[in-house]
Amino acid sequence: MSTETNTTTATPVAPVASPSKVFIGNLAFELTEEDLTNEFSAYGKVVLARIITKRNNSLGYGFVEMEDEESAKKAIEGLHKKEIKGRAINVELTKERQPRPPRQPRVATSPSTSDSTAAPRAPKRAAAKRNGGEKKEGSNGEESKPVVSGDAENNTTGARRRNTRRPKTGAKPSDSPASPSATATTSTSSTGVPAERKAKAPRERKPREPKEKKVVEKDTTPREESKDTVFVYNLPFSYNDEQLLALFKDYTPKSAHVIINPRFKKSKGFGFVVFDNAEQQQKALAVDKTKVEERELNVRIALVDNKVPAATSPVATTETPAN
């Protein structure tokens, strides 16, 4: 009697790279390395926590190295499939990457070796004779005329036309007839283009005239400090005229205007505030360095042109005009 033995082959498992280093997947994109450290510190000392990023954006996975193997196993048991910031994370030991087998060099196949077994092609003249150029005997024992194929007939017709071509006007006929080969080479080339063709003279290109550089004139208009207007910049982009006016309510402002981008219909982040007199203007400078919506305001005395009177400065009032 023969006994059958069942042999089972074990599937190869990648060796563990580090018994104290774990891989974490399916992480929330807003999760930080500090959050990972806080989660894993409940199971032991965290040596290193790292989230893999690309262009400062999280890729959703990372690694945590614990102090010892026991702490890593506890972290896997406690945090695997635990929901953190709306996502159930995957925690497992890191596995060592197996080396790839070397690639085999490619063997280049030349066309001479690939076509060595193919039968050589017969020349065209031999093929023409084989197709019907040979003489055949008729039914009465007489020799029949050679049968010429279509391609051969076209070739002979073309040669006959070239040989019977008339000479050009004004040319003297030669005493001896020219050979067909000489006539063909002098009249046309192998591509059918006349052999004697005058080369075209290259076109003359005119040199380009240098472009005139535009000179931007700087504004040299003299300016002086306004006596009733302040310039406010680094404003929140959500601010409008009323909110800007409310910032200076303790100094009795007359009007305020936030400059708007006409293309995008949004604030440019700066504006002007007009007061009744210079005294209130000077007091309003105390608003400088005040933080509004996490932005530090900058307040300066506005500058106006000498030619333009102060009443026509580019400051619009927030009061609605009467109809």
TrEMBL record:
One of its GO terms (cellular component) is nucleus. CDD domains: RRM_SF (cd00590). PANTHER family: OS02G0815200 PROTEIN (PTHR48025), RRM DOMAIN-CONTAINING PROTEIN (PTHR48025:SF1). Residues 105-121, 173-191 have a biased composition (Low complexity). Residues 131-145, 195-225 have a biased composition (Basic and acidic residues). Residues 159-169 have a biased composition (Basic residues). Signal peptide: none annotated. This is RNA-binding region RNP-1 domain-containing protein. GO terms for molecular function: mRNA binding. The keyword Translocase does not apply. SUPFAM superfamilies: RNA-binding domain, RBD. InterPro entries: Euk_RNA-bind_prot, Nucleotide-bd_a/b_plait_sf, RBD_domain_sf, RRM_dom. Residues 20-96, 228-304 form the RRM domain. Residues 87-225 are annotated as: Disordered. The keyword Iron-sulfur does not apply. It comes from the Eukaryota. SMART domains: RRM (SM00360). Keywords: RNA-binding.
